[in-house]
Amino acid sequence: MTEIACEAPLLPVVAQRERLITRQFALLLLMVLGSGLSMYLLTSVVPLYLATNGAGGVGAGLSTGAMMLSAVAVELLVPRMLGRFGYRGTIGVGLVLLGAPSLVLLLTASLPVVLAVCVVRGGGLAIMVVGAVALVADLTPAHRRGEGLGLYGVVVGVPAIIGLPLGVYLTNVIGFGALFVVAAVASLGGLAFLAGLPTRSTEAEPQHVKVLGGLRGSGLLMPTLVFAAVTVAAGISVTFVPLAVSADRHALVAVALLVQAIAAPAARWVAGRYGDRVGPARPLVVALLLAALGAGALVFIGSGVAVVVGAAAFGLGFGAAQNLTLAMMYDRVPRSHFGQVSALWNLAYDGGWGLGAILFGAVVAGTGYSLAFGLTAAVVAVAIVPALRAARTAAN
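^ thats the sequence. predicted structure below, dont judge the formating
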């Protein structure tokens, strides 16, 4: 299918000036900001809460794992939920599942109960990310979809940047209990904006849609796998860079991760605007090159300059790849399959992130960090090949 973004310059001038930020889009962004803050405030706090109450490192690790595995499982169900309940019903459920269980933590630090809370919140997270991304694509004009997804990426990035350190800091200021209430309110507050969202897509989402079905010939498989290759490296960098450097250099790691966290949403927005003009295929090659170079810089893990510069390059490539792969996927399907695209993309994100960390942990024991980071860069570099093919096809 000819990419919609490539046709944008041929559209009438009136269409080019169509508003991007409508009232519905603004309300959605407010909801996403609150739900994201709810999620990131507790991402590091729940493991700390368990460890403080005697669950140890095992309990802390289980809490994160339970939430992410739950998210991956529920992501497969969200397209059907969108087809049956529409945007309002589905996103409303997501807000409640993400926010309300935090209040249960006021009553107990029992490991089974906390893990159950994490599972429920993981389901809410899955509903929010899949439903919100699909709605962004539905609300934005086709010729400005990349820019709309980029703006969404910036808003999503804000809670990620401030929520993680703020949550840990606030535990010493207001305590765990008050923080759990803040996290619940941040998500549940979005229910006040729910009536302002559209009930359903402009084209009905089929209730029988299978997220992993019908991929052959759909054009979705290539960008899904390409993005998964980048998220593998993202999960590895966040998880293992702090472990690969000596304890006296953790301030350097904090700077590198902050640089990466800031660069990613900025690149996501810029890539969206540029991709709307030239199509997402060509800039995707550049994004993958940056990501591969950034991951490859970690081969020189002993160099502070390499770590920070590599984090910047990877953040730019990762953020741009997020936007461009998603825009490419939306361009290749009708609106009735936007839910499937959102679910696929989020599966690539969460699955690649988790799988990369697991495999890297197994490899690094036998190779050492430098070689293992080099292999990570090679995985990203391989993804450049199908991206080049897509760029050549788009050019023709």
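Confidence is low (pLDDT under 50) at residues 1-16.
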